[in-house]
Amino acid sequence: MARAGPRAGPRMIVGLANEYYPPHAPGGAEWSTQALARALAVRGHRPVVVTPNYGAPAREEDGGVRIIRFPFPVKLPPGRRGLRPRAIANPLFALWAGLHLARVARAERLEVLHAQNKHMLVPGVLARALTGRPLLLTLRDGSLIDPAPMCLHHGDRRPPDCGVRKLWRECSEEYWALYQRGRRGRFTTKLAFLYGWLDACARQRFLARVDAVVGVSDGILDIYRRSGLLERVRRVETVYTIPPPAAPAPAEAAAEARRRFGLEGRRVVLSVGKLSPGKGTADLATAGARVVEKVPDAVVVFVGDGDIALPEASWCRRLGPLPNADVLALYPAADVVVVPSVIPDSLSRVIVEAMSAGRPVVGTRVGGTPELVVDGETGLLVERGDPDGLARALVRVLGDDALRARLGQGARRHVAARLAADRSVDRLLALYEEVRAR
Length: 438
Known about the structure:
Blueprint (H helix, E strand, L loop, with lengths): L12 E5 L10 H15 L3 E7 L6 E4 L2 E6 L20 H17 L4 E4 L5 H11 L3 E5 L11 H4 L9 H17 L5 H19 L7 E4 L2 H9 L9 E3 L12 H10 L6 E6 L8 H14 L3 E6 L12 E5 L3 H7 L5 E4 L9 H8 L4 E4 L4 H4 L6 E4 L4 H12 L2 H18 L2 H16 L2
Parallel strand pairs: 1-2, 1-5, 2-4, 5-6, 6-7, 7-8, 9-10, 9-12, 10-11, 12-13, 13-14
Antiparallel strand pairs: 3-4
Helix pairs in contact: 2-3, 5-6, 9-13, 11-14
């Protein structure tokens, strides 16, 4: 039976709250929130986005999406730059954002509040208490377990002996050695690490106050379940991220991207994301040197910011952070996209975008990645922290044109089927109706 078209007028007024929203988009959550808002509007609902104002218009209308930006003292240029975490990971921000969210909920007659990330959890709980509107929270990563979860570098849960003693003696030492050595003193790092952990512990207490938790993959929800953090949550549901429109790029678009970034005549391995130990940057740099031994015309392109030093070699190209439009233009120019994460990705936006563009993906067997990268069908999976295995997988894809084409076609089909926008919107709308009816 064909789906009925949207009724005249809004069917549900939904508040989507996030700490960032385009044009200020340091990560993938902002684009996912925008995609959800637009999908709700297409279905005839009225989404209202509530977010701090970093310098954009205080009120905007975007194709049926109302954007309300509440006052915030810090201004940012449009793009991927974000604030220092403690600028929003503090009680003052939670109070300020919660009061404004409650004000918007009343003024716009919001029926449901949906916090899109952990920093809007406490503001959402405050607004729920002040207005009586039901609240949902989307979990997109493991940072509610710990902002720098060293335990997830090695495993898939918070260890049972997690506590201040272990954190101070072991976890913060490992974090300093991996992320901060040469940039910040050991004691200062340990204090900041402890602050982040205490902040996460405080937020965890508010999970029982939400009406439903949404995970962007089964993998991320499994990590929270194994860590014992969802035991008091009334309703838990997996709803996948809405992918970007999957329009096959013409051959000339790929050629233009190759010309623009100096990649002509090369076999391109594309990595998009923060250059950090948790994202597996060092593993990819090691693997890249081994790839070019087998595929001499290969080039590994790194897009993103970070402090990891990359090899000074002709096969290594560092483009730095790029606007989202440029990143989307780069996917068709890539022969393979690689996501070598060590910390589990919930559902990598890079994988979603790459597969939507028909690119095969080589990823690690962590988090939600195996839900998209089906080994041998849409890409190849390797174990995290295994540069040799990563190199072998990349060489295999780069050296086999038929395999690369088959994986790319499978990737596009798989992401279109599993992450169908209508399916995700249907599941969310059912949840909205359920919590609203309580």
